[in-house]
Amino acid sequence: MKKSRCYAFALISLTITWWGISAISAPVIPSPCSAVITLAYLLENGLLIHIWASLYRILAAMFLAFFTGVPFGLLLGTEQKADDFFSFIILVLYPVPKIVFLPVFLMLLGLGDLPRILLISTIIFFHMAVTARDAGKNLPQGSVDSIKSLGGKKRDIYVHVVIPACMPQIFTSLRISLGTALSVLFFTETFATSRGIGYFIMDAWTRVDYNELFAGILGMSIIGILLFTLLDVIERCICKWKYI
Amino acid sequence: MLEIVNLSVEYSAEKSRVRALDNINLELEDRKIYTLVGPSGCGKTTLIYTIAGLLKPSQGNIYINGERVEGPSLETAVILQDFGLFPWKTVEQNVALGLVIRREDCIKIKKIVDGILDKLLLKPFARHYPGQLSGGQKQKVAIGRALVVSPSLLLMDEPFSSLDAMTRENMQGEILNLWRQNPMTILLVTHSIEEAVFLGQKVIVFSQSPGRILYVINNSGWGVRESEEYHKTVDLIRNLMRGHSR
Fold first, then answer.
1. Are residues B216 and B102 in the same domain?
2. Pairwise CA distance, residues B20 & B13, whole Å
3. To the nearest whole angstrom, how far is the Cα of A88 from the nearest Cα of chain B?
4. Residue B246 — pLDDT band, cuts 50, 70, 90?
5. B62 and B117 in one domain?
6. What does the pLDDT look like over B69-86, one tens digit per residue?
7. Nearest Cα residue in chain A from B84
């Protein structure tokens, strides 16, 4: 089956399932039709502000986590001394549910975007760092030996071997992190803000406007799908060799 | 000239030390092809790695043109067993790597790489990734990558072991052609007696682990598979190795 047909099939079966569920649990779950109509209306009437706010927060958080977590993880993966020192700290901090620090972040950093972005990126940072570290520990030895034998210095090993070799795993971890990031984003937007899809959904709930609630959920899903597709496109560009 | 003096290499395995090479003494003259044959696990790869400066000797020294080997040298190129190609780089980028590391300028790199790709008939595959190539083509890329830096010493670690019989013979011929056009010192490690005798002007026979030099044989049968000398030398080495494995 062609890819586009697969997508269409998935979309249709999901819509039918949704429609079936909505038929028995109305009005809490509106039909897909009315949710989409409400979404279309809201996109022209104020929902975009919330979508942009959420997109900005999640993109900023992912960038921040990527550009700190990946280099840090690669360093741990390739330098035994750094690993000995920091691994224990990561081991202790990794299982702590960082999400409980939202109140602390809000109190320390104010009520703006910064504490929300930082909370998301703190959580994602650990995913990035741990994956990059493990990838860095399993480098193809042949490639490392080759580049050393060509006279490559440490910098060359990073540029020509470590970074490209670890990229596929890092993209996998980015994809998994994206799901977590979206959940955390929703959570951070339910407190002390009047912008963002998370706020919009909670607001619709308190107004008992189920159509708007579901339009919000659809909006959040669209953000997720967009980011997922974006990651896919970037990966296909950067890791071309994986897709031949 | 490559001189190996009293060279021993030991690995530390759990609580014990394993000797891979035992007191190797060897001199390789410039612009000659040497092949080294021995049973698997006899330390052949260790010797290549040590000469390449990737491993430190436990005892003894290696000198290239009188200078002690302390680490990888720009004059030495290595072709590893599984080719050591970078799957994320195209053929062109793989071949160019040695020059990129040496920070040569782009125009010069392009010119040299194009020349090498032409010579190895790899031009049509310049933009391909290693994953898209056959075993023989990958091997050519590895050779191209080694030759691009015009090394004076080329070390090869069982370079043809993963190729089928015909490709293998073609690649052996290719190596001899390249060497005739541009003679350099070559040390090729193999477990195939036929390959060692076909390629090596001198054949070094290694013992079982820990690797010691049993014989260094002057080989007049090199380069011509059909010659009587070739077959005689193959038989001679086979008998010698058989005698030692008993």
1. no
2. 12
3. 25
4. low
5. no
6. 998 888 899 998 877 889
7. A142
